[in-house]
Structures are given as C-alpha cells and as structure tokens.
Amino acid sequence: MIDRSGGLVGPGPDAGAIDGGDPAGAARPAGPGWPLAPNQVGVHLADALAERPGMHTVVAAYRLTGTFDGELLAERFRALVRRHPALSSRLVDDGPALGMARSDTAPEWRDETLPPSAADDDGADRLLAECLRPIDTRRGPLMRGALLRRKDGDADLVLTASHLVVDDQAMETAVAEVLTGDTTRSPGDYPGWATAAAGAAVRGAGRAAARRAELSALPLGTDPAWGCGDAAAGDADGGQLPFTVPDDVWRKLAGTARTLGISRYSALTAAVGLVLARNGGTDASLVGSFVTRRPAAQRHTIGYFSNTVPVPVRLAEDGTVAGFLRTCHRQCLAAYRDADLPLFDVLPSGHQSGAGPLTAAVAPLWTPPPLRLPGLTARPLPHPFAGAAKFPLLVYVDMAAEGAARGLLQFRHRWFSAEQAALFTRQLVAVLREFAERPDARLASVTVLDEADRQRVLAAGLGAPLTPEELSVPALFTRRAGLSPDRIAVNDGHTALRYAEVDERSDTVARALAEAGVRAGDRVGVRMERSCDLIVALLGVLKTGAAYVPLDPSYPEARLALVIGDADVRVVVGDADSRPADLPEHIDWLPVRTRPRDPARPLPAVDPDLPCYAIHTSGSTGRPKGVLVTHRNVTSLLNATREDFGLGPDDVWSLFHSFAFDFSAWEIWVCLLTGGRLVVVPRAVSRNPEEFHQLLEDEEVTVLSQTPTAFGLLLATDRLARGGLSVRLVVFGGEPLDTRTLAPWFERYPKARVENMYGITETTVHSTTHTVTREDTRTGSRVVGRPLPGWEIYVLDARGRPVAPGVAGELHVGGAGVALGYLDRPELTAERFTTDRHPRVPGGRLYRSGDQGRLLPGGVLEHLGRLDDQVKVRGFRIELGEVRDALLRDPSVTSAAVVVHGAGTAEARLDAYVVLAAEGTTDGLLRRAAARLPEYMVPQTVTALTALPVTANGKLDTARLPAPEPDADAPAGPAGSPDAAGDVLDRVVGVWRDVLDVPVAPDDNFFDLGGTSLLALRLKTALRGAGLPELALKEVIRHATPAAMTALLRDRAGAPGENAG
User: Fold this and answer.
1) What residues pair up with 793 in beta bridges, in sequence order?
2) Residue 594: left if φ>0, alpha if ψ -120 to 50, beta else—which one?
3) Percent of the chain with pLDDT over 90
4) Are residues 154 and 235 in the same domain?
5) pLDDT above 60: residue 1033
6) Which residues contact 63 (CB under 8 A, 6 or more apart)?
7) pLDDT-derived band of residue 907, with 50, 70 and 90 as boundaries?
8) Is residue 346 included in any domain, yes or no?
9) Which of 101, 665, 965, 1058 has the most crowded Cβ, counting Cβ within 10 A?
10) Is 991 found in the same domain as 930?
11) Residue 57's domain is classified under what CATH number?
12) What is residue 742's DSSP assignment?
C-alpha cells in the first residue's frame, strides 16, 4: 500500500478532481533549475516547521512473491530516477527564491538480506525503520529504493520519496516502472508545470489575501486543546487506528448526499468539522481537504500535483442538518477553486506555526490492486505508517466503498492518546449516522457521543452514594460535646475553651438572640475579630435556627453595609460592648457576652434544611451575591470527607481564613464535628508567613487548609525554618494549584497527604478531591480528582450537552452540596442553578460554575480556569491559564501571573509577573515561552517580583500588581552595543518594510501585513543580507512580529555557538 500520511493527496472520484491547465510535453533536462510550485511550497514549509526535517515522505511498499532479479530491479530504479526530473532533483532554498535543481548524488538503493539469526522473522521492524528514515531534500535525489529480502524467500520492495515531488499516483507510476521496466509512456513535463503554477501563484496573491481575511474571521483555536496526549512526544510521533463506517450508515449517507446534491466527501469533511468544533467549544473549525490538480495529459508524470486546502466549517446550530451539509459542500467547492494557492498563504494569521497547522485533515483511503507479472506477484503491504504523523488527526475513508467503508485514523501522540483517538472515530461515526438518518433535524440536536459513550461520561460525574445527615450542625456539635466534654475545642493564643464550655456559652448566645426576636430562618450578622468567642457566636446563631452572616471587621465599611442590606440583617452579634458608630440605627447590636433574662429558655430543634450561613461572593455588577448554604450541605461535606481523610479527635486544625471566606466553614465545622482542636490564627499572623509557620509548629497543627498562593509564601518560609511541622494533611482550595511548586514540600514531608480540592461557595466549599503525588509535581498536573461522595460534576457545553473526555466545557455541580441559591436574586438563581436532567435524587439541581474543566480519559477531572479568564488580544482568543502554565514550565520561575492590560482595545497586551528561583533571571524567559506558545500568546513584558500579592483570602490580588516594567525582557541587540535594542529593532523594521513594501510597526504581524510563504523566505535572506544573525525559516514564521524577531536576535547574539537551524 502507498503511505499517504504526508497528507496532500486527492479526494478521489467521489469528490471530483480539479485540473490545472498545462499541456503535456516530452521530458526536458532540469537545466539550472525551476521554481517550486505553490503546493510544493506548502510541503517545504511544513517540513521546515517540523522538529525532524525530511519526515514529509511518501512510501510505497510491496511484498514480492515468486521470481525476481535484484540487480534488474536496481537498474530499473536508477533509470526511473534519471528519467524523471522531479526524482533526480534537490531542493534549493538558500537564496531569495525556492526552487529545484538536478542533484549530483547517485540515488540510494539497498538490497538487504535478513540474517538467519535475526529475531525479527518477518522483517517488520526493518521495514518500519526504512519507512521512517528521512530524506535529505537539500542533497537529493528525492527518492530511494530498498529490496528487503525475507527468510521465506519473498522480499519487500520499498520506494520512499520526498513529498515535495510525488503524490499517490506518482508513486504508483514509479512502482510500475520498477517492476515492469515499461518506459513507453510519456513522463510529461513536471518542471514546466511547476514553473507555470509558480507564476500563477504570484498572480493569485490577491486571492490568497482575501481568502486569509475570510478565514481569519472564524472563531478558531490554534492547537487541539481538547487532546490528552503526551506532551513529551515529538511533533511527528504518532499512531494509527483502523475503523469502519457501518454498511447501513454508508449506504444511507450516499442516498442523503444524492438527495442534497452533495458528495459523501463533503459530508465527511462536514462531520470532521462538526466534531472538531464541538470538541473545541467553538462555532467553527478548519478542516484540511486534499485535492488533486493533476492535468489529464500529465497522467503518468512523476511529480506532486496535490494540495491541502482549508475548508471552513461553520455551525449554524439552529439550522437543519441538510442546510449545514449544503453549506459545507459549497465551502468545499470554493476551497477547491483556490487549490492553486500555497496553504500557508491562506491560513489565518497565527495558524502558520500551530499544531498542524490544521488540527485535522481528511483524505480518501485507497489501496492499489496487486500487480501480477509472469512468475511474480507484487502485493501492496498493509499500511506501513507508524509514527510519522503529519497532522494531529488525519482521517482516511474508502470513498469508493459500496458497503461498509474502511477508515484509518492517524494521530499525533503529542496531542491525542490512543484511547482518545478511538473515541474520535466513534464520534465521527455517530455524526455520520445522524447525517444519514436525520437530515431534517436541527443541527443542535446532533450528538457527537453515541449512547454508550454518553452513559460512560455521565457515570464518571457521579460521586459515591452518600446517606443524608438528619441532624443539624448545632445538634451534631452538642452530641460531640457530650462525647468529649473536657477536650479542648478551640484556642486562640489567649483563651482555650473545652467542648462543654463552647456548648454552654453558645446556648447563652442563642437565648439572648431569641430574646432579641431572632427566629428560625432569620439572618444574623456576626461582626467579630478572630477569637474563641467568634466560634461561640457562630454556633449560638445556628442554635436559634438562624443563619449567620459574616461581617469581617477588616473589610471596608461600605462592603459591610452592602452585605447587611443585602442579607436583611436586623441583629448583629459583636465582640465589643459598645455599638459601632457605622452600624445603621435600625440594626440591633448584641455583645457576645450578653446574658439572657431567661437562662433556661428552651432552644428549638433546628431543621437541617434551613440555611446555615449566608456568605457573600463578588458579583460582576459590583454588588456582592449572598449564597445560602444549608446545614445539610455542611454535614454532607463532613460525611463525604471524614473517613477518607481519617479526620478525628486527634487532629489539630488551623482557622487560617476569614470567616467571611467559605473556606472557613470547612475549617471550623468539619474540625469541631469530628472532635478536633481548632487553632484560631490571628489576622496579623495569617499575613506573616514566618509567624504563621511558628504558630503551626508550636500548636502542632495536623490539618492545614490553604490557598495555593498563601501556601507558596509559607513554603518559602519552611525551607529556611529550623523546626519541622506536624502537618499530616494539607487541603488546597480557593484557586487553581500548580503542583510543580510542591516538590520541596514532598522532599521535606514525604508522609504528609496533600489534597487538591475543587469547589465553589455555591456548592459548599469543596466538590472534588485529588490526592497529589510526587509525579504530579513533575508533570504540573491540574487534576482536581473525582466528585466527593454525594456530589455530581458534569462537563457540559454551552447548550447543556455532555462533552467527550478531553474536551473542555463548563463544570456543572450537583448533588449534596448545591446551595439554596442567592439571597433575593431570583433571576440570577434561576440562571445559575438549573434543573439536573439526570439527577441521582429526583428534583436535583445543577450549579453552573463558570469554571472550565474537562474529564480526562481516566475518569478524573482537570480544572482549566475560569471561563471569563479567556481574553482577546488582537482578535485572538487567549486562555491566561495556558500562558501562565508555559511560564511555570521554565525552571527559572516558581510562581507566575498573567494579566491583560487594555482589554477590548487595539492596544491590548499581555503582561507577565513572575517570582524567580534562587538563580533565575528574566533573561530569555519570553523567548523560551515562545517555544511553547503561538506568537500572539507570548507576553509583551515580564516583571520579576519577590512575591505575588494576595488578598485577605489568600488568593492572587491582581489589583496590587505593579505597572509592568517597560523594558522588562524587552528586545535588545548584540551584547556590547549601547543602544543595541533600538538599533536592531530599527534594522529589523527596515528589512520588513523593504520586503513587504508597506509601513511596519514593531507589533505588526507578518502575515497580517500581506506576508506570504515566499516573502518569508525572502525576508530570511534579507535579514542575513542586513548583517543580522542567521534565522531558520521556522523562526521567521514563528516570530512573526518585528518585536518578537528582535528579541530572538538579541538572544541569538547573546548565545554564541547557538545555530539558527
């Protein structure tokens, strides 16, 4: 079989060929050479961008059985290369133009016998190695041959050629000439065709720019972010997976295509595009489609006549399937008409150096028939591809099949696991079935998951069953106090209270509140400093059946006034005898030590479905939102974690967080209801890592709850501390955790358990948990684990449909932790708290978190940040978390934050803030980030800080980040030049201006200014001619602004010996 994994082959009879118009002629000598045709330019650039140049090859492998003469085959192969100029040529790319010239090197031919001692009996490993060997295109010739003899007397004939000069039909011609020796057919004139095509491409530059502008309007990502591959894999490392489109689907699809007046190839393109768009969370995708432009008169010419054209697939979800297919067919035809243009010249800006640059492409799958000669049978081998993937996904389907259609999916390991590749084939078949059977259905109703996959996804979102708790928080506390009345419940550095004392004192507070008119269901404000009395007050409020409303005295008065008004607070409990001057007159003030008139007043039994607290979170309108969390929500959190975490009376907990932050509810109530001792951390101590570390050490705290930002400060202190900690369990929450920062902790405390818990105020603090491992600290895992027992978490798209594993969507949380809703915000409550379509308990609800996540193939959840963390810069959608992750992968960085300044304006830019390792500097940091990110995602500045600023709740405080340093990691020139930065930038801008013949600014994108693939080569040559350091073509393309290019040149000048290739 012929390996067309290089990717640029024609769609076959089902799609229709596009002919170019150049008359055939006799073969002519290459002479001084000829220019590359535009389709060849695309292959060259794809190869230049690859990490292993020379891998864009096409392989034909045949098993020879019978009588054959190795020397005769070698002679015919050499004659084949001499006869066809394309094969005997080499690439010329060291000047201002790309071209081909005759190679002076003899073609390689190997006749190799498998040794009798070889363990590889059938020679499969040897065949694979031959298929994967690159070809040196600059040296040539561009085809090699091998006869690999087997132990059984058969042999494998393997012809390997650069994709620059062959397509599938050319390889069939080559195999036939070698096996038959027939040279009577005209070889045509490939140099003449390529010369004419190159001239037409120059004349078509305006069409290329218009097409690029059209495609740039699509909401596209650059790389398949929904893949779950191996980041350490090479760009081209991949695998393949056969699949089948069932007979009934393929036949019905043919009927639907005839009715709609489209081809099945267009329907296949549409199906791939729909799966890509749904998996990418966008309304559009770009699919590579292979077309052939081989003129009929060049039928037997060996040359490369195919091209990849990008087909835009737009989802009109409210339209019909039929309308969608017709539109996609028209887009295919429009794309085919531009098949004479270089692929890179029509791709949207920013996509020239991405993953493929296309995520997926489609091609027909066709196996040539065996050749039967006198005494010899040549049978095409099973597909020899194994590892040299040219696209993240490449879909082959046998378009000529009458019954079930054979398919083959090739995929890159860097982007997709084998499990996920298999899922993609099932998604594709499911969509083709929908197309075939329901052309009149709304496109939005088309599922990309078959029923079995859908059920697996939903099952992964269910936590273990959890028996509801029938007692309230105060009832459980009283029961606990009865079990251990003399154990210390809480201490604050000045006072320590036993469980019995807390129970008795909270009864007193509750009776005083009842006498003040507080009833079940009311909301009572608590305005107190952190102390033992604070815990007494909170419990006292709960014993009345009321919910407590935290009023942290450290918060601004205006904020407290908003909370009091929003919660309709009538009574406030405080730690001062005198009423605060800023408290509204209609609010009653109750000192926590107030004695009730009736100390024997009975207290009500508290319904566990009543609100336990109302904690306010920030709102997008500036008005805080009060979240009502019930007693049953809190006790469910207790019961979901107690056994797994081994929580009990021997534990010592720290109350680190403000009681206005819901993390405190976890610290206070889970500690006290399991019989632990709660150590209240004074606010001043919580803001001082050295003092906090000493407190943890002195109090022998065993359970520590932290936000990652706050823990980073503590960890830095711990590295210098003489004494160790007694912590056995660290619980992270409140913000995303970068596990790479935890390596020093594991070194110092290898037995401590670390839990990364994802949660939201509206779903009761924590919803998932994941035990962090040492391996996580090496990989930078963002896994937040599985739902807690009793919780449910689903990853849904914008229309509420479950998405496939690996695909990002919004996290929807259901089950035991879902709060009642927002205080007096019925519209917002209805918007965010929705009906659970598949609840474990009838009447269940889901909370739309606003967080982005995905279900990994192993069934665990990965948190990807806030949906509103996505910003637009120069028209590109950017996930700030992805940029931050790239910075954190640099060994010189220990912490990082990325913000956008000037959002929504033409001057929008990304600025990075980093905390450096001991020996780290910002020198070259952005250049190294550019190796991991598209150009438009690389921050324009990087500012080093000693620590990232944090809020009172321990989260990153972006408002306190300083103005970016204007010269931080700014472009600069060769070392020793006093004004090198400005000088080099001016020279680069000048070269760009000369090449492009338009005005140029430092942040202008090369392709936005009208740059093309050929102009990129001219720019490369012009930069060298201007006396600047040598840049490889891929560096010119990937550093596509003068500023980015200048920064690269600066680093090149500062690193002698670093080559440009």
Assistant:
1) 813
2) beta
3) 56
4) no
5) yes
6) 154, 155, 156, 378, 379, 380, 381
7) low
8) yes
9) 665
10) no
11) 3.30.559.10
12) G
Tell me the pairing of strands 376-380 and 57-66.
Answer: antiparallel
Tokens matching residue 208: 């290329």
- End position of a domain, from candidates 199, 228, 249: 199
Pairing verdict, β 405-412 and 238-245: antiparallel
The letter for the amino acid at 813 is V
Q: Rounded CA gap, 84 and 185, in Å?
A: 12
What totals of helices (H) and strands (E) does the chain contain, helices first? 31, 42
DSSP 60-76: EEEEEEE---HHHHHHH
441 and 547 co-located in one domain: no
- Owning domain of residue 55: 25-199
- Both 80 and 144 in a single domain? yes
- If residue 1057 lies in a helix (H) or strand (E), which one and from where to where? none
Q: State how far Cα 754 lies from the chain centre.
A: 25
| Whether residues 893 and 960 fall in one domain | yes
Helix 708-720 / helix 689-699 crossing angle, nearest 10 deg: 80
Query: What residues contact 456, with CB distance under 8 A and at least 6 apart?
Result: none
Residues 6+ apart with CB under 8 A from 794: 457, 458, 461, 802, 811, 812, 814, 846
Domain assignment present for 792: no
Asked whether the predicted pLDDT for residue 15 surpasses 90, the reply is no
Considering its fold, how many domains does the chain have in total?
5
Rounded distance, CA 15 to CA 336, Å? 10
User: What token pair was written down for 197?
Assistant: 């095509």
Pairing of strands 861-866, 941-945: unpaired
Report yes or no: 510 and 538 within 8 Å, Cβ to Cβ: no
Query: For position 710, which CATH number holds?
Result: 3.40.50.12780
SS3 764: coil
Same domain for 521 and 453, yes or no, is no
Q: What phi and psi values does residue 298 have, to the nearest 5 degrees?
A: -105, 30
pLDDT of 1043 > 90? The answer is no
Distance of CA 115 to the CA centre of its chain: 47
pLDDT tens per residue across span 656-691: 999 999 999 999 999 999 999 999 999 999 999 999
Residue 746 near residue 720, CB atoms below 8 Å: no
Phi-psi region of 842 (alpha: psi -120 to 50; beta: other; left: phi over 0): beta
Same structural domain, 444 and 497: no
Residue 608, strand partner residues: none
What is the domain-level CATH number for residue 255? Answer: 3.30.559.30
- Domain for residue 1058, yes or no? no
Is 336:362 a contact under the CB 8 Å cutoff?
no
In a domain, 238, yes or no: yes
| Strand pairing category for 791-796 and 809-815 | antiparallel
Tell me, yes or no, whether 361 and 441 share the same domain.
yes
Answer with the one of 199, 231, 264 that is the final residue of a domain: 199
Strands (E) located in 445-546: 488-491, 496-498, 523-527
DSSP letter for each residue of 965-1032: PTTTT----STT-TTHHHHHHHHHHHHHHHHH-S---TT--TTTTT--HHHHHHHHHHHHHTTPPP--
Three-point CA angle 740, 743, 749, nearest 5°: 145
Residue whose token pair is 């919803």: 767
Tokens of 55: 């891998």
- Six-digit token string for 574: 């405080």
